[in-house]
Amino acid sequence: MAISIIATGDTLITQRLPYRDESLIQLKKIFEDKDIRFTNFEFLVHDFEVSPAAVSGGTWVAARPPVIQDLKWLGFNLFACATNHALDWGHEGLQKTMMHLDRSECIYAGIGNNMAEACQPKYVDTPEGRVALISVSSTGRDWHIAGEQRPDVMGRPGINMLRFKAVHYLPKHEIDMLKSIVNKTDVNARRMQLEREGFVKPEEGFAIGNIRFEVGDTGTVTTYHQKDADRIVKAIQEAKRQADVVLVSHHVHEFKGPEKDISADFARDFARLCIDSGAHAYLGHGPHILRGFEVYQHRPIFYSLGDFIIQNDSVERQPAEFYDLYDLGPEQTPSDAFDARSGNGTKGLAANQKVFESVMAAFNVEDDRITCVELIPITLGFHKKRSRKGRPELASREDGERILKNLQQLSDEYQTKIEIKDGRGYLYL
């Protein structure tokens, strides 16, 4: 028998879902027909009784605990939680979120009180078999990564992180020119002092702070952190022995080139590593837009599934640091700050229609194989007021075909063929 799965991208929810909304009821019917209903849980849950971190993933994202029940009502039964927002409200905010998820009997992966918990595969048992999820994020601060336990020191709450490094290549004469310019100032004095005192490892080539340059053909290459990758591969291999289907969720904003719709080198290499290690599908998200899809070893790689819910401009409260970004004082409200950030809806995520258009990926796993993925386009109310913007509904046939044609173009570089029929897309493996 087949295990049926539907996967969505980022859910950044800050408002309650109206259960009588016909558009949501249509989606609910689609979800209820599947064994596994996945989304990326890109927010924290608490009652604002915790202190914010000094920095955030862009917005200090939080919602009240009842939204968990709303997502369960809609049908979701598997959540990935490793994201760049997981520590927006510090370790206490993360632990409050885990507490509320546990109380709601949710199955979630990617966060924990230490690295062993954060990297652990989590399982859903269905009538047709067992499904495992490993959740990973590459976007985040260096202090977001969960800490390993030691015999003499506790672990640290955080996320299951796949770090990466970037090397920028330039001809030798240009690097020599760069060194000459840098050495005329103190811009790199701290880096050099830390190297001399042994607090930072010297880099090959030339480093300015954490930015690394080497001689070579002009361009930038990113590679994943091998120790992190080894840890995640071990988790995939564990899940492969304990489950019938293995899913890897990867939250990654990083991109290659001037536009963010092309995945960074390390993300592509990691996605293929996951499949080679036994994953049945790689579920990417993070940039808040679609990225191309690839068929690798007869299994799907979704480099980004875009957004499912995006309510980034209606968080109930923000800390003082958020207002400081826009030179606003304590008398201002969250709406004042969101308006300042978006130029009253004229710039940023709020003004990008692609942020509010996406697809859901539905597929069956039978006898360890996936033969076809159905791509179901959705729109998120781009032209609606903030109070209703960001909530999903099935796309019209016209909008759906336009979204799928854009996805076809994004997937061309992987030689992926997506067939469009009656407003739906079909990816044959």
TrEMBL record:
Residues 4-312 form the Capsule synthesis protein CapA domain. It comes from the Bacteria. Belongs to the CapA family. This is CapA family protein.
